[in-house]
């Protein structure tokens, strides 16, 4: 079963690399968001308050946009691709083969997690080179674990979304409709201290805030210890 899941993951990865639309929304869009937000709000020595002190606004947006990249790879892209496969009869044909359903699900999750890890590495590198934002060495493991756990969690949510999306054309708009408002109230596009208290309380209910906060804990220089945020 594990061997089959790894094999199917390779197939899903090749399919992803051949899909230009998926590549743009998953890989290019987070990079554009980082450049735009860090350039617009991060200049002139602007700083953002975080627990334990303050960091430059450019540094703040690196872990925030990493959270966006993980969600795009594992929630939006997975929901769209699985819905498309369901509507085209691909999943039905696979169920007619001896391949276990668990292998099909796990193979798609492995692909999404791998893409999320690559996305996080690209954004880390861009933040380091362009904005001088680097992750402390003692918290690097916590950052990596947070990316993987967050990716797996949003894969589960992506599969859950496919159960209520009725057609292929509605999958990506539905994912964006769920996520865009949450990005604004969860500390991704706007720092939590700058939000009205009632909006911040609403954002606390949803998982986007917790992924962004855990990544920020592992990223900021004020963090004591290894940076794991349960």
From TrEMBL:
Gene Ontology MF, one: ABC-type transporter activity
Coiled-coil regions, chain positions: none
Keywords recorded for this protein, A-Z: Antibiotic resistance, Membrane, Transmembrane, Transmembrane helix
Transmembrane segments: 24-41, 61-84, 105-129, 141-162, 174-195
Biological process terms in GO annotation: response to antibiotic
ABC-2 type transporter transmembrane domain mapped to chain residues: 10-218
Record protein name field: ABC-2 type transport system permease protein
Pfam families with a match to the protein in the record: ABC2_membrane (PF01061)
Localization annotation: Membrane
Organism (species): Kribbella jejuensis
Lineage of origin: Bacteria, Bacillati, Actinomycetota, Actinomycetes, Propionibacteriales
Membrane topology qualifier: Multi-pass membrane protein
Main location: membrane
GO CC, one annotated term: ATP-binding cassette (ABC) transporter complex
Domain of life: Bacteria
């Amino acid at each position: 079963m594990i061997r089959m899941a790894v094999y199917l993951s390779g197939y899903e990865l090749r399919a992803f690399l051949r899909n230009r639309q998926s590549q743009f929304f998953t890989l290019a869009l987070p990079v554009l968001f980082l450049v735009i937000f860090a350039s617009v709000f991060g200049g002139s020595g602007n700083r953002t308050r975080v627990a334990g002190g303050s960091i430059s606004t450019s540094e703040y947006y690196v872990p925030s946009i990493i959270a966006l990249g993980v969600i795009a790879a594992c929630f939006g892209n997975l929901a769209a691709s699985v819905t498309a496969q369901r509507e085209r009869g691909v999943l039905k044909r696979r169920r007619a083969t001896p391949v276990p359903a668990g292998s099909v699900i796990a193979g798609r999750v492995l692909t999404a997690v791998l893409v999320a890890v690559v996305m996080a590495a690209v954004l880390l590198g861009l933040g380091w080179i362009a904005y001088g934002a680097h992750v402390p060495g003692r918290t690097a493991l916590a950052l990596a674990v947070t990316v993987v756990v967050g990716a797996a969690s949003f894969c589960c949510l992506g599969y859950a979304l496919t159960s209520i999306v009725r057609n292929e054309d509605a999958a990506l708009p539905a994912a964006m409709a769920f996520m865009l408002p949450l990005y604004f109230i969860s500390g991704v596009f706007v720092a939590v201290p700058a939000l009205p208290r009632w909006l911040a309380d609403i954002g606390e209910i949803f998982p986007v805030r917790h992924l962004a906060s855990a990544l920020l804990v592992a990223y900021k220089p004020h963090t004591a210890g290894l940076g794991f945020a349960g």
